[in-house]
Amino acid sequence: MLPLTSAFESLGQLIGPADPSLFAAEEAKKALIGLARDLRGLAYAFNTKTSYMMLFDWIYPNYTPILLHAVELWHYEPQVTTPVLKLFAELVQNRSQRLQFDASSPNGILLFREASKVICSYGNRILNVEVPKDQIYPLKLKGISICFSMLKAALCGSYVNFGVFRLYGDEALDNALNTFVKLLLSIPQSDLLDYPKLSTTYFVLLECLAQDHMVFLSTLEPRVFLYILSSISEGLTALDTMVCTGCCATLDHIVTYLFKQLYQKGGYPGRKNTVVPGGGDLFLQVLKQHPEILQQMLSTVLNVIMFEDCRNQWSMSRPLLGLILLNEEYFNQLRENIIRSQPVDKQATMAQWFENLMEGIERNLLTKNRDRFTQNLSLFRRDINDTLKGPNTTANPIGDMMTLTFN
After folding, report:
1. pTM above 0.85, yes or no
2. Domain spans, the chain
3. Mean pLDDT of the chain
């Protein structure tokens, strides 16, 4: 590691002065780019705990401040920041379980804190950078996408007990999550699906947050939560199967959390008189005021399963049961609308298939109940597709039920 140590020492001296005009900026940038790329290659190759710890003990805490300072200096230059961000994204990646630290080791927490510093430092600065629309991805969104990937890897690496941060008043986790929210709101929603790499990193991170940090999502401001739900709704119909599947999993986590909260607090899902207690989570209040949000989700999922080439039927089935239980009256309206759209001689058959769909299904989201619903849905889709392909059948009665725009 002597050549790399020498390179870091030289870089530290180059960017040491507080005023960038006092040092050779171009020389420092070239040194930083080469060093970050070399280290990323090493980090990628070190797949064992022993080799990774050699690298980690060498780079932290001696040289990570230099990398952080470089991000602060040149946050507006992606050719400089991208290699550094990718290096940190690799360092937090628990590839081959290489980040299984000892029980008495604080290294997992220390590593996350460094990643949080980089995300917050870059994120808060890039928000203020104005770029041309035709250059928004290479100059801005690419770096944000890498930050999303870094945060996802750190959150899902299973080497940090995140309860420790709030227990001891450490703001590293909250800062990283709040920076994610600010970065997300800075992205036009159309761009989330227009740029494949950005959409992949965003939806994968969102699934991780919904799975393990639903409490954080439930306390977001209404406009943020509406933005997230709207993006999920768009992702459900995305051409990319991975994006669609991730949105289904995320929606399932959200619906399951909502279902549990309503039952624990005395509300009864699916009824007009459902009451969300005044002290409930913000997002419970939002969904009470805007029931059409989940209703459109239900309409979208059912529409994809019934009328489109659904390549991930199992994934679609998981949130569908929760959506039905939370919106029983609306589901009944959808069902009646579909039945009435059929030729008179087929309406009884269609009604029977809907009855079969809910046969044996209880009002809970236990695994056994979910699996039974998934089996029923497979038979439902098989039978109903044959009928819907008939010449006298209305193509898409669900699409007329609701048109919703999130504000």
Report:
1. yes
2. 1-187
3. 89
